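Entry 14. Ran structure prediction on the chain below.
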Amino acid sequence: ASAIYCVARGGHAVHSGLRPIHSARRRAVAADAAVAAAAVVAAMSASTTTQIFLFLVAFSYLSAFGSLYWQWSGLYGDDGVTPAAIFFEQRAARISSPSTLERLRALPTLAWFHANFGLSVAEFMEAQALAGTLLAALACAGVATAPVLLLLQLLYLSLYTVGGTFLSFQWDILLLEVGAIAVLLAPWARPRPAAAATPAVWL
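Output, structure tokens:
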């Protein structure tokens, strides 16, 4: 009995000695797994967050452009509340420079080119609202690339410049600011779900 007891005690001692080793190994393996999982989650989170942000910006553009296009004739048409043509011509008359770049710098709107398309100011700006609506829908469908968002930014800035009272709210300015950030965040090609855009690190 004494011999059996001694063997049992010895086995217990050996097992007790090995227990910290096994425990340390398990902790090391768990730590490595946790680090790897955290890296994967971080990469997925950055990518997912960027995609969600770009979708929300695109949806905001869709709401803004769609609303403008729907109400354009009543607000900015030739018989509207504040005709865009009159507002544009009044501001354009203050700019004497013949340089197109100087004109765009002083009054950043595509309305300067309405005559090149054979359209009135109101018709040309309404066409921009429609183009913005279609581009925003494309961005919402998953093509929220930097070129698309840059076009949306330019179109909305163009409309904002001649929008007067109805486009002078903080919401409109905020959309332009967020839209500029979205251009920096968006990829220049179709989004790759495995990786986030590099500028996301800056922001």
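The two ends are 73 Å apart (CA to CA). Will compare against last week's run tomorrow.
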